Amino acid sequence: MAGAINNTPRSVVTTESRPVRYLLTGLALLFVGLFLVIPLLSVFVEALRQGWKLYLAALVEPDALSAIKLTLLVAVISVPLNLVFGVAAAWAIAKFEFRGKSLLITLIDLPFSVSPVVAGLIYVLLFGAQGWWGPWLSDNDVKVIFAVPGIVLATVFVTFPFVARELIPLMEAQGSDEEQAAMVLGASGWQTFWRVTLPNIKWGLLYGVILANARAMGEFGAVSVVSGHIRGLTNTVPLHVEILYNEYNFVGAFACASILALLALVTLAAKSYVEWRSARLALEDQRNALNDQ
Question: Could you tell me the pTM of the whole model?
Fold first, then answer.
């Protein structure tokens, strides 16, 4: 059966004629080239236009280094938080029935429908000097807005759905038979999670973490509202790029932007590897199932 599937003629699978396939493929490649590849290449071209020395000098400039460090710090804090929440939420939604389940799913999707700028304004309303908790925070010398905690909160909000949304359909498709079998055999809850659940979701989990990390490092709107744009203190790389560009420092702006572009390429490569690995394991499982039959 597996051989029959692999040897199926292309004409049986694809009903479109060859000219139509070529036309659709050409249009797809044209759009990818115009709107993705060329703009991405232009970033590196502009960054290196005046040579490597100025490019590297723009990256090691103190404000640029501070922005890079802050971006990495925010990602290191926000991504693990969303990883823990995403696994817990997906496990609860996929494995159990409870009141408010549909509401929880809706709330997980909320950051997709709310503008990042609005998300930033929400935190200003809560933690700003004139916000609900602003006077109490001021009296206790706790800084949230225009400081690292506010940037982390805004980043956690915009990256909130990625891990959970990758795991929920995966865990629902897998069901709970293996977990129940492990519990029957005497495994504890933690043993079941580490030895049964986690190995089954590891590729989906990694995929969600990759997407969340890319969004965390590239977020602009929500972070722009809560950061205060303090150079050397609360500027992430996207905010630093905007400031340099507005100051007509194009080499510095494109040099820092190239860091984000490289991050996008690394993310794309990691995403492609995870998809390839996951598809390969699924194909091996199907072949093993056919061989068992």
Answer: 0.81
